[in-house]
Design a protein that fits this description.
The protein has one helix and 14 strands, in the order αββββββββββββββ. With about 200 residues, it is mainly β. It has one helix at about 15-40; strands at about 45-50, 50-60, 60, 65, 70-75, 80-90, 100-110, 110-120, 120, 130-135, 140-145, 165-175, 180, 195. It has one domain: Immunoglobulin-like (Sandwich). Strands 1, 2, 6, 9, 10 and 14 form a six-stranded mixed β-sheet that branches. Helices cover about 15% and strands about 40% of the residues. Keywords: Signal. Belongs to the UPF0423 family. This is Fe2+ transport protein.
């Protein structure tokens, strides 16, 4: 697991102490959502690098996607049996960190079972990175979450020095939910949502 670092949170020519406190307040709200996710779905959480990373899984689920100029509902595919989610927060202010390269690997008995790149997913409660997948069973699995260095630019000569190193976290003996959560009333319908297969 990547060693912890404390990202800077000091007044600068870009952010006053009051503005940094507003950022912390935003992070407190995201932290409460992460905590609720942990209590509801049993999220595994770790602090590594300058990030807080939470991994959770639930039944595979559908989602809206833009096709042309309209949103269409893409139900979880019949073969999908789990939805993998990773929430990533800044360890300094607690806010969600967008625009990252996030992947998850599942292993059992030292052998790889699944590797999935997780795109950003909007959620009404907790923005996260995630994907539907097909796994052989509920596990347990050893889970590795990898977050690449952020490729976006950062404001602030004092506080912008963050997210420059890759971060890995490991969770051992994780059980997965198996099943699908259908949404029959969502319209209009499109093709099934993508599924990462083991």
């Amino acid at each position: 697991m990547t060693a912890q670092q404390q990202p800077p949170m000091r007044p600068s020519n870009e952010a006053t102490a009051e503005q940094l406190e507003v950022a912390r307040s935003q992070g407190d709200a995201y932290g409460r959502a992460m905590q609720a996710m942990a209590e509801e779905d049993g999220a595994e959480t770790a602090r590594a690098g300058d990030l807080v990373i939470a991994f959770v899984n639930e039944e595979a689920e559908g989602m809206y996607a833009l096709e042309g100029d309209r949103l269409v509902w893409r139900e979880a595919a019949e073969e999908a049996n789990v939805h993998l989610e990773v929430a990533v927060a800044d360890a300094g202010d607690g806010r969600f960190v967008p625009g990252l390269s996030v992947s998850v690997e599942l292993a059992r008995d030292g052998g790889a079972v699944l590797h999935a790149e997780l795109p950003f997913l909007w959620h009404p409660f907790l923005h996260h990175y995630g994907a539907n997948a097909r796994v052989p069973d509920t596990g347990p699995y050893d889970v590795t979450v990898r977050v690449g260095p952020a490729q976006f630019m950062r404001h602030d000569p004092v506080n912008g020095r963050r997210y420059a190193q890759p971060v890995d976290v490991h969770f051992a003996g994780v059980r997965l939910s198996n099943g699908r959560k259908p949404s029959p009333s969502a319209q209009p319908r499109g093709a099934a949502a993508p599924t990462v297969a083991a």
